[in-house]
Design goal:
By secondary structure, this protein is an alpha/beta fold. The chain is about 40% helix and about 20% strand.
């Protein structure tokens, strides 16, 4: 239900829900309800180095719009909702000490947005998990070593070729989960895990806020 306060926010400040565009402060109750119906699930991809992976929800409808708004339109007020989904994906990997390693944004993207979207979500997810008694930390252990082509429009093979050898990492002790906002072809998390394994990480999985479904899987 849209209140007079929501309408005032839209008229005066241009405030809208990043999930549906309706006037209001932050994420509306309808979009929160839609996200609450998502359940974490295992993600599989048939590409080299793809790790054991999970996602907090399916990359479609409200969640797809929310991920895009957080990354490209400065909708930082949705960090908590996205972090909750990531926390659910992390929890599927079991209890115990774990370090979340965010997929790095390019320096140009960080300058354009004013913040690192994936790191922001990972830090909030870790905070929530620690509040629940989980031993979890965040480490920016992976970085880019060369410029990448825009991944949009590339198929799986082209994305993998674009990303192969694009990241390096430093060693992180213990169990590691690479985290990202969305898993599509899986090439990005696979490359991050490859770099971490080359740095001596023994156990590397992945957890993402969202993931696309393979054809025929629903």
């Amino acid at each position: 239900m849209t209140t007079w306060l929501d309408v005032a926010a839209d008229l005066v400040l241009g405030a809208t829900c990043p999930g549906c565009g309706h006037p209001g402060w932050g994420l509306c109750s309808a979009c929160r309800g839609a996200l609450a119906r998502d359940s974490p699930f295992e993600v599989t991809r048939r590409i080299e180095n793809f790790p054991a992976a999970t996602a907090g929800g399916v990359y479609e409808r409200v969640l797809r719009r929310l991920v895009a708004a957080h990354k490209e339109r400065g909708a930082r007020q949705s960090t908590g909702a996205l972090a909750e989904l990531l926390a659910g994906a992390v929890a599927l990997h079991g209890d115990g000490p774990v370090t979340l390693v965010p997929v790095p944004s390019t320096p140009a993207a960080v300058r354009r947005r004013g913040y690192d979207s994936v790191h922001l979500i990972a830090a909030e997810a870790a905070r929530r998990l620690r509040h629940r008694g989980v031993d979890v930390g965040v480490d920016r252990a992976v970085r880019h070593v060369r410029r990448l082509e825009d991944q949009a429009g590339l198929d799986t093979a082209a994305r993998w070729a674009n990303l192969r050898g694009a990241m390096v990492a430093r060693h992180v002790r213990g169990r590691v989960l690479v985290v990202d906002d969305v898993c599509t072809t899986g090439a990005t998390v696979a490359e991050a895990c490859r770099a971490l394994r080359e740095a001596g990480v023994g156990e590397c999985g992945a957890a993402t806020v969202s993931a696309t479904l393979l054809r025929g899987h629903r």
